[in-house]
Specification:
The protein is an alpha+beta fold. It is built from 9 helices and 11 strands. Helix 1 runs antiparallel to helix 5, helix 2 crosses helix 5 and helix 3 runs parallel beside helix 8.
């Protein structure tokens, strides 16, 4: 999740664990430790682009590091808060509670986290929330701002009640996202069953800032189908699928490169590739696509949010991240909200894959 959400969640947990002893200082300490795991980005400049894919939300988000940090920091914090009579165990529980909730909410996103590192390289991602969701963050933020002004001892009960409401509403929203995903998934499954489509696996994730409109990616071996549907649409409403050929052969001869192995691992198999003169372009389909409606009526260009250029013969960095596809983000969001409100014609058009190095936009097939 974004840094504001993590700081807000950390502050709420800090109030829950230490608010009675530290008052508003618990909010500040909670916000600090709530963002601490994401400070792994400070080391990013020292790492290569490929290694950084493994590092971010990697070891710093693991259960092992979480426990080790709690034990290591507890004595220092207990000494710092000696006047408040906070024991080592209480301080350690504070660190673990804030750190673990940070990791847990990250697991609700598509990006996922390396919770079981170093025992497993698999990243845990439930795909229930977008990385920024104001409906999750705002209840906690409003409650924390309110309770920060309640400083007297006789207002302690009110502080705890406000914090409980903020955490409760945010938790209820997270649980609601689980139910919404179930509803959306059932709709996609019904559409594929009606068509008699066979597939190896599929995934669903919410579109930006909401849990109403969902995006499905279906793995059919040599191609992926991508479609959108609202939870309010009936199972009889057909999904319009965009078909992306995988073109795995584009990486032939580069399979042994460290960069290729890491990108394939990071994308968890949800990748497409295209060959070009200097190597290959790789796009990760899990994170969605930026859309740009062209001057040609009925044409929309798709550009992958996560994409890289792989240059096997390059000196230095062989893996280069590409533009995130955020050009025209304002129009994309406007059309997205129109799609959420039940107007699919503003969202769908004849799709082309754009942003592939050395290639003109590639017309993609659709299945109505």
């Amino acid at each position: 999740m974004d840094s504001l959400t993590q700081a807000t969640l950390g502050a709420a947990i800090g109030e829950w664990v230490l608010g009675k002893r530290l008052g508003n200082r618990a909010l500040l300490w909670g916000a600090l430790f709530g963002t601490l795991p994401d400070l792994d980005v400070m080391i990013a400049p020292l790492l290569g682009n490929a290694t950084n894919l493994w590092w971010h939300r990697g070891p710093s988000h693991s259960l092992l590091v979480m426990i080790a940090a709690s034990c290591a920091l507890a004595p220092c914090l207990a000494k710092l808060w000696k006047r408040e009579k906070i024991s080592k165990s209480h301080a350690g529980w504070f660190v673990f509670a804030v750190w673990s909730t940070h990791v847990l909410i990250d697991c609700f996103t598509v990006y996922g986290t390396s919770v079981l590192w170093p025992f497993s390289s698999h990243r845990v991602g439930f795909n229930h929330l977008f990385i920024i969701d104001f409906f999750f963050t705002l209840p906690m933020l409003v409650a924390l701002i309110w309770l920060a002004f309640l400083k007297s001892k006789n207002q302690l009960a009110m502080r705890r009640k406000l914090n409980a409401w903020g955490l409760g509403l945010a938790s209820a929203y997270a649980l609601l996202s689980v139910g919404m995903k179930f509803v959306a998934s059932a709709g996609f499954e019904a559409d594929l069953a009606r068509r008699g489509v066979k597939f190896e696996r599929r995934m669903e994730a919410p579109t930006p800032f909401n849990i109403i409109l969902w995006r499905s990616v279906v793995d059919r071996g040599d191609e992926f189908w991508v479609g959108y549907r609202s939870i309010f649409e009936s199972h009889e409403t057909p999904v319009r699928w965009t078909i992306y050929p995988k073109d795995a052969a584009a990486l032939d001869g580069m399979a042994d490169l460290k960069e290729t192995r890491i990108v394939k691992w990071f994308a968890d198999g949800w990748w497409i590739a295209r060959a070009h003169d200097q190597g290959a372009w790789i796009g990760d389909l899990r994170f969605g696509e930026g859309r740009r409606w062209t001057d040609d009526q009925g044409i929309v260009d798709h550009r992958m949010i996560f994409a890289w250029d792989l240059h096997p013969e390059a000196r230095g960095e062989r893996l280069q991240p590409l533009s995130s596809g955020r050009d025209g983000a304002g129009e994309t969001l406007q059309r997205l909200f129109q799609r959420i409100s039940g107007n699919p014609k503003t969202w769908e058009a004849n799709p082309r894959l754009d942003g592939v190095t050395g290639r003109s936009p590639e017309l993609l097939n659709v299945m109505e």
